[in-house]
Design brief:
By secondary structure, the chain is an alpha+beta fold. It has one domain. Helix content is about 50%, strand content about 10%. It is built from seven helices and four strands, in the order βαβαββααααα. The protein has a four-stranded mixed sheet. Strand 1, helix 1 and strand 2 form a beta-alpha-beta unit. Helix 3 packs antiparallel against helix 4 and helix 3 packs across helix 5. The radius of gyration is 19 Å and the shape is elongated. The chain starts with 8 loop residues before the first strand and ends in a 12-residue tail after the last helix.
């Protein structure tokens, strides 16, 4: 990815997928060269702002209008991070790019199963679990 005057990257992610929401949470905690904005891919905002982008695949949209999909989107995410830019450049090397594409494809195809296997829950699933937790009522203090 060439250097360009980006001021923000918007990442469209699947908010119903535990792996995707986990990746979003991880990305949000990383020091970045460029601010990252996260928008659920199936949201009204995503449909209104990014009609041309398929909602079933990771997408990164620059404020300059550039769009990256799938494994290229993930590499752009890494490129935006201070600690992972070198890795992003390495993954674009012809010797590694095919392997990176294949790894992303396998993870993407099995993200639901991986989420279950790793116990990764999206926000709605977490809310449902937490709603089932019994919290005893506090007793008033005696005076």
């Amino acid at each position: 990815m060439a250097a360009s005057p980006l001021s923000e990257l918007t990442i469209l992610y699947d908010d119903s997928c535990g792996l995707c929401t986990g990746a979003k949470a991880w990305l949000a905690t990383q020091p970045a060269f460029i601010p990252l904005r996260f928008v659920p891919a199936g949201s009204d905002e995503a449909r209104r702002r990014f009609r041309e982008v398929r909602p079933d695949e990771l997408a990164v949209i620059a404020d300059t209008g550039e769009v990256w999909m799938g494994n290229r989107a993930w590499i752009v995410c890494l490129w935006a991070l201070r600690d992972y830019r070198d890795l992003a450049f390495r993954l674009t090397n012809p010797l590694l790019s095919g392997m990176a594409r294949e790894a992303f494809s396998v993870l993407s195809a099995h993200r639901g199963s991986l989420s279950v296997m790793l116990g990764l829950r999206n926000e709605r699933e977490m809310e449902q679990v937490l709603r089932k937790v019994f919290l005893p009522a506090c007793r008033p203090e005696r005076q």
